[in-house]
Amino acid sequence: MNNQSTIERLTYEKYYCNTSSVFYMENVCNRSTILDINLSSRGLASLPIEVLNKLMISLDDSEVRSKKMASLESDQPFNSLSELEYLAIRNHNISHLPQDIFNGLVLLHILEIDSNELTGVELNTFHSLSKLECLTIRNNNNLTHLPQDIFKELTSLTILILDLNKLTSLENNIFNSLPKLEYLSISRNNLTSLSQGIFNELKSLKYLKLNYNKLSSLKKNTFHGLSSLTSLYINYLDISNNNLTSLRQKVFNGLELLTELYLQSNKLTIIEPNTFNTLSELEFLDISDNNLQNFSSKVFNGLESLTQLYLKSNQLKIIEANTFNKLVNLEVLDISNNTLTSLPQEVFNGLKSLTLLSLNSNKLTDLEPNIFKNLIDLDYLNIGDNSLRYLPQKLFSGLKLLRSLYLNSNLLTSLQSDIFNNLANLKLLDIS
Predict the structure, then answer these.
(1) Predicted model pTM
(2) Which of 121, 145, 320, 420 yields a CA-CA distance of 20 to 30 A from 282?
(3) To the nearest 5 percent, what fractions of the chain are helix, strand and coil?
(4) Position 223 in a domain
(5) How far is CA 288 from CA 333, 347, 359, in A?
């Protein structure tokens, strides 16, 4: 028996066949076909190199998780696992990943480094992982910075998740070498700004999540070059739950294929006219829970494909007459929980595809006759929880398809006898 075989046999006996060892695993000891090695809940303080070295050369999946390993005992602890495809290192106290730690993992496709205590990642940590497709570095409470070329060799990467760290900034060219990246999430960090052009080379990106950061402004052309992006989360492009106070013209330039834009739960007070005018494919826009009091009638210019618009929980006091006129495909409009006292008679003209309209929880004192007459497809109308004392004749003219009508929690004392005469399909009426 050669020396290598002897060492391998002794290693098996020392760790995997010793029933008193924390590494005891019957399947490994018996040299069964091994697709998964789980070292969770074994009270590990460290991972001896010989546990892996020269043993699992055909290993496909490995999870190294809980309890609380503080270090990896070797510069290259995974060097012999040339066929490993999945590696998860979760729920430990690891604070540092040295260079070349993943050398030898030439077939690795998925790497998860989650819920550790990382303070830093060295420049060449991932440089040998040319086959890697998914990388997650989540919930590392002390990670504030990443080197500019940290992802330089990851040319096969399609998914990158950096959520729940404490990143305060990103180097300008950090994503430049990721031509295949389709999904990027940097949610729940401490980002306060983004460099202009930081996403320029991500030509394949489809989903970008930046929600729950501390972004206070966005520069013009921040997203220029993201020609494939379909969803943007700043909350989903998600940019929600940040500190944005304004949106300027050209900030969304280059996002011609964007279909979903989430801007809710910021501190927006200003949206400039034509801010969205390049988003011709946008279908979903949420600007709820901000501080908007008004906006230009041109603010939604260019959004001919929009089907859902959410403006609830702002401080809107007025909406100009032609604000929604060009939203010919809009199906859902929610303007609830604002401070509107009145609406122009022509405000909903052009919304021939609208099926749901929520105006509840405002301060409306009256409504113009025929204000809804062009909403020929409207199915649901909520004008409850306002200050309406009177409903004019013909208020509901044209609403032949309406099935649900909420008038509850107003100040109505009487109703005209024929006020509901045109509502032949009405199924639900709440006037409580």
Answers:
(1) 0.83
(2) 320
(3) 5, 15, 80
(4) no
(5) 11, 19, 14
